[in-house]
Amino acid sequence: MKDLSRHINMRWLKPPIFLACLLPLAHLVWMGFHGELGANPVEYITHSTGTWALVGLCVTLSMTPLRRILKQNWLIRFRRMFGLFAFFYACLHFTTWVWIYSGFDVHAMIDDVYKRPFITMGFTAFVLMIPLALTSTSGMIRRLGGRRWNLLHRLIYVSACAGVIHYLWLVKSDKTIPLRFAAVVTVLLGYRVIHYALERRQQAAAAKRSSRESVYSA
Amino acid sequence: MLIKKPSDIPYSEVTPKSVYMNRRTFLAGVAAATGAATLGARSVSDWLEPRSVLADETKLGPLAKSPFSTTEPQTPLKDVSTYNNYYEFGTDKSDPARNATKFVTTPWSVTVEGEVNKPRKFDLEELRKLAPLEERIYRHRCVEAWSIVVPWIGYSFSALTNEVDPKPTAKFVAFQSYYDVKQMPLGPRAGIELPYVEGLRLDEAMNPLALLTFGMFGETLPNQDGAPVRMVLPWKYGFKSVKSLVRIRFVKDMPPTTWNIANAHEYGFYSNVNPQVDHPRWTQASERRLDGSFFGKRIKTLMFNGYGDQVASLYNGMDLRKNY
Questions:
Q1: β pairing state of B211-216 and B146-156
Q2: Domain boundaries, chain B
Q3: What does residue B91 show for φ and ψ, rounded to 5 degrees?
Q4: Which residues of A touch B290 (CB under 8 A)?
Q5: Alpha-carbon distances of B72 from B140, B148, B149, B158, B291, rounded to whole Å
Q6: What is the pLDDT along chain B (324 residues), one digit of tens a residue?
């Protein structure tokens, strides 16, 4: 498949996609002003922002597979934006818990993180995203160097898994939706495992081939 | 001369590259489609379907006032009828109001049987006329740590018990809710075994607070709130208050209860509101009171939901941490 950026300047896609990422928040605010958040708006907002954070993580994680499979390198420009939006919705989710749900009751929150496994998972998923957000700039990529930056940003894999487990552990009976997210994350991370294994095999095969050839060409 | 051994053949030549590449594209497509479907599932469907309409309810009256009523602000009817845990009609809070509109509640009968001298099958009308209807404004506390204040309409369950005359062998009361896959197609996905069953100790059922309930807010019950007849047990977590009653059986032994079957570690037989005994996954020390204000209010949970004066004596000497 030909690289589409030969025909379209992908930079023009950024503003509309940025706005699209803000739509879930805009929708929430609109519903809030129209009394459409139901009887328990705290629960609705918490659920919604958490779901969008997970969706954001999945979209971010799908950039590299799509880029490689469809051969569209320009997709990599959008990875950072999607990742930061995932963090943005995670921040809203976390803030809702700290401010509206817990009323800044620090004792209750520490209790929750310490005693309730699903909150421990959620807290972990969120905290791991912070260094990733802080090092998302080009300046930071330069400061850390490509290798270290890539290593650090593998934390998103842990964050995505912790986020799914957080969701799975909080539902009471019907686990359908958390399991769907689990399936998506499994596929997205599974792709990387397969890709890595295949690359290693190709490298090993190539190394064997070249070493054999050098023997015969001597 | 190169002697090729099978292991020397590169992987990419074993499987045709196009097939290999297409398989990953397919997987990526599945992932994207699933993600999009999950992404879209809730909010888009909310947008496409109009807000649920409250079915026409009939007025109930005259209603006697009760000393058991609270004077706290009531939760608006709109909230009580659109925020429901009635998994037979879907597991989202907004599902029952949307999905129970066609639920048929007439004709309706409730069978009372078991260890009683006068077992009987009651018509809904007969059952409603058994005792004078009262308005009971109760606090209703969900195990999920939110609560509402609802003006229920009914009479003490003890009036029905006296009518059927339980034998000395009756120690517990078992309740069964309506279940029919044709009317409740989402039932199989509820994640709990149906029909929904619950139970009480006989003395708990005889407590005047236990309300055989026929209405709320001056009218008959909306479908999503458990029409046409249900129990309301204000000192216990809401899931003990069975909706859409069809069968009441007086029994010798402690009967099975649906949430205990689903997860015995989290939901016990008694399930009395108790701020000192946490649910394994969240605290029960406080709750969010949905009083119609935008976010509601976080308040401390009271022992027995504040009904200790009427019910604490039922549990004298019992370890309520063990008997959660």
A1: antiparallel
A2: 51-315
A3: -95, -5
A4: 39-40
A5: 12, 10, 7, 26, 9
A6: 555 555 555 555 555 555 455 555 445 445 555 555 444 444 454 444 444 456 678 999 899 999 999 999 999 999 999 999 999 999 999 999 999 999 999 999 999 999 999 999 999 999 999 999 999 999 999 999 999 999 999 999 999 999 999 999 999 999 999 999 999 999 999 999 999 999 999 999 999 999 999 999 999 999 999 999 999 999 999 999 999 999 999 999 999 999 999 999 999 999 999 999 999 888 899 999 999 999 999 999 999 999 999 999 999 999 999 999
Domain assignment present for residue A211? The answer is no
Q: How many distinct structural domains can be found in chain A?
A: 1
Instruction: Look at A176 and B282 and tell me if their CB atoms are within 8 Å.
Output: no
Let me know if residue A15 belongs to a domain. Answer: yes
Whether the bond into B185 is cis, omega within 30 of 0: no
- Residues of chain A with Cβ-Cβ distance to B296 below 8 Å are 40-42
Convert A111-138 to b/e letters by CB count within 10 Å (16 or more is b).
bbbeebebbbbbbbbbebbeebbebbee
CB contact under 8 A, B8 and A209: yes
| Cα B203 to Cα B312: distance, rounded to the nearest angstrom | 12
Residue A216 inside a domain? The answer is no
Which of A27, A40, A108 shows the shortest C-beta gap to B288? A40
Using a CB-CB distance cutoff of 8 angstroms, which residues of chain B are in contact with residue A212?
Answer: 2, 8
State whether B190 and A177 contact (CB < 8 Å).
Answer: no
User: What pTM does this model have?
Assistant: 0.84
Q: Which of A27, A41, A112 sits opposite B295 (nearest CB)?
A: A41
Task: Report how far Cα B237 is from the mean position of its chain's Cα atoms.
Answer: 10
* B296: nearest CB among A42, A58, A115: A42
Domain of A17 in residue numbering reads as 4-206
Q: How far apart are CA B241 and CA B131, in angstroms?
A: 20
- Structural fold of domain B51-315: Sulfite Oxidase; Chain A, domain 2 (3.90.420)
